[in-house]
Amino acid sequence: MGRNPYRFSFDRLTGDLVVGDVGEGTTEELDWVPAGDGAGREADFGWGICEGSFLTGSTTRPCTTGVLPILDKFQADGWRSIVPGSVVRDPSLPSLYGRLVYGDHSKSALRSAVPATPRATDDRELPGVAVSGLTSFGEDAGGCVYLTTGSGVFRLVEDDARVPCAPAAPPGDGGGGEQPPVGDGGGSDGGDGPGPPGGPGAPGGPSAPTTRPAPLRLGWKPAQRALRNGGVVVTARCRRACRLTAGGTVRTGRRTLTLRKATRRARAGQRVRLLVRLTPRARVELRRQLARRRLPLVTVGVRARLDGVRATTVRRAAIRVKR
Fold first, then answer.
1. Which residue among 180, 280, 282, 310 is least crowded, i.e. fewest CB within 10 A of its CB?
2. Where would I find the beta strands (DSSP E) of 144-188?
3. In Å, what is the CA distance from 3 to each residue of 118, 135, 265?
């Protein structure tokens, strides 16, 4: 139970739940519940014993009840009605991919952060983006991110201004999935944030990348026996010769464990197998979760980099661990 969960969304890749809870007198909050924890089913967000991470009416006395926020924003700092967006899965927004975008009805700036427990990380403002009277966010079938105000509907753009985004290819028969490659207009590491939003007819224009990433396809089985295999497996293929690095995390309850990275070189068009191995700690925790009839979720990220080129392409896969 929350006081006023004004907006919420589900991560289209992992199924994790994000809730924006509007406070009463002190604190606006963002709550995040991983799919492995029930994605919010019967969750208690602390109201009215708590407001945000603190006891009601306080910003110093910590709360120990229910699901605690991953972000607190205080009304003393001008926050009045927090508006959560979605975890960005639009590949044409490389600087925001995997980040939660959000804002406030009373503030012009938009922000983004990496959702995690117990607290979100890397909370920062989106440069060059200003809105008035933010009311909501949304996504289309391809993952394009839109926002609404009293003036209309706008889209966040960075590398591709086409509307709507092209839907991702569905998984093939046999349970495998393969993501389509990003075109040569991909983004680069460390780039500026997305440009100002524009209307559907004129979304602000794409930014001009300074380098070109390696178009990358990623394939995987959505459910794998990680304990038997020693980890989870993805296959990757670059259109040009590239260096591939795969890493992963596994969520078990409120804990996130990091897996061992795998690195391989691939020739142009070569499909390579990447095994992201379990650490001893992750193996013990997975065995415990499976004994409790839970199916933990492993998130794998694969990065492709061309030799001598700064830009990279990143793809992610969500894999359930089965018995």
1. 280
2. 145-149, 152-155, 177-179
3. 20, 18, 51
pLDDT tens per residue, range 262-314: 999 999 889 999 999 999 999 999 998 899 888 888 889 888 887 666 556 77
- Rg over alpha carbons for the chain, rounded to the nearest Å, is 20
DSSP 8-state secondary structure symbol assigned to residue 235: E
How is residue 178 written in tokens?
């393969």
Residues β-bridged to residue 210: none
pTM of the complete model: 0.54
Separate counts of helices (H) and strands (E) for the chain:
2, 23
Tokens at 119, concatenated = 């607290």
Q: Residues near 276 by Cβ (< 8 Å), separated by ≥ 6?
A: 231, 232, 233, 234, 246, 247, 248, 259, 260, 261, 262, 298, 300
| pLDDT > 70? residue 166 | no
Helix (H, G, I), strand (E, B) or coil at 176: coil
